[in-house]
Amino acid sequence: MVATNLKAEAMKLMETRSAMEAEMNGIIERLCRPGCPGLSGNLVDSEGFPRADIDIPVVRAERHRLAQLRNDHKDITEKINESIQVLHSAWLAPRCSSSSKDTGDDGASDIQNSSMGNAAVLAAHNVVLGDSSSSMDVDVFVSIPFAVVDEIADASPTAEDGLQLGDQIVKFGNVEYEAGENLLQKLASEVQANQGRAIPIVVMRQGAPINLTVTPRAWQGRGLLGCSFRIL
User: Which domain of life is it from (predicted)?
Assistant: First the structure.
């Protein structure tokens, strides 16, 4: 019963987080349209007067809502991670006890159903379980987006290489989600270390994982990529 409740709770949290991500991406897209101020652009003109070409109250409201969603997204991701760890333990338990000889058919059925249910939750969270060829250990690969592309310049390396606004970064070369790490600094270091070389990346786009490569290189604009990332 506890495992069933935890699974249902985890699925509900994932649905809530997906809705948050959709709303966040919508806000980012609206703020970054041509002529709009983006996520941090000035709301006043060169003379210090409010810009007349944008709806300033709406922009401020959108930015405020985005900040709220970022905080909520961080909190819910932590809760999901805790649930995933418990469900992973539940997944391993029947496998570790599979050599027991006193398990009846009913027990085997319960174990199978429990494992299948946990597998559904893990799959929904982009968790892949793989058996080790030499033991009963299970390797766990948790694909958690840690950054989102919130600005891309026209004709930039990232634009030419296929990265899109709103793409969520799961893996960027050797950089992956790691709690407590300065991920922006790690991204910058990865880019600098691979100038002129293709970097394999994995992004989540509209809920589906996509494999790409981007090559940091000099171009007419600023930086080696011509885009900016926001940590989730």
Answer: Eukaryota
Cα–Cα distance measured from residue 177 to residue 146, given in angstroms and rounded to the nearest whole number: 5
* pLDDT at res. 95: 54
Q: What is the CATH number of the domain that holds 178?
A: 2.30.42.10
Read out DSSP for the chain?
A: -HHHHHHHHHHHHHHHHHHHHHHHHHHHHHHTSTTS-TTT--SB-TTSPBPSSS-HHHHHHHHHHHHHHHHHHHHHHHHHHHHHHHHHHHHHHHHHTTT-S---HHHHHHHHHHHHHHHHHHHHTTEEEEE-TTSS-EEEEE----EEEEEE-TT-HHHHHT--TTPEEEEETTEE--TTS-HHHHHHHHHHHTTTS-EEEEEEETTEEEEEEE-----SSSSSSSEEEEE-
Domain of residue 171 covers 147-231
- Positions of the chain with pLDDT lower than 70, given as ranges: 1-4, 87-88, 90-143, 179-180
Given this model, what pLDDT does residue 98 score? Answer: 53
- Number of domains, the chain: 2
**Any idea which residue has 């496998």 for tokens?**
95
> Given this model, what pLDDT does residue 230 score?
87
Cα separation, 83 vs 11, whole angstroms: 10
> For residue range 40-71, what is the model confidence (pLDDT) as tens digits?
788 998 889 999 999 999 999 999 998 899 88
The pLDDT value recorded for residue 92 is 58
Residue closest to 95 by CA, chosen among 114, 77, 78? 114
Could you tell me if residue 215 is inside a domain? yes
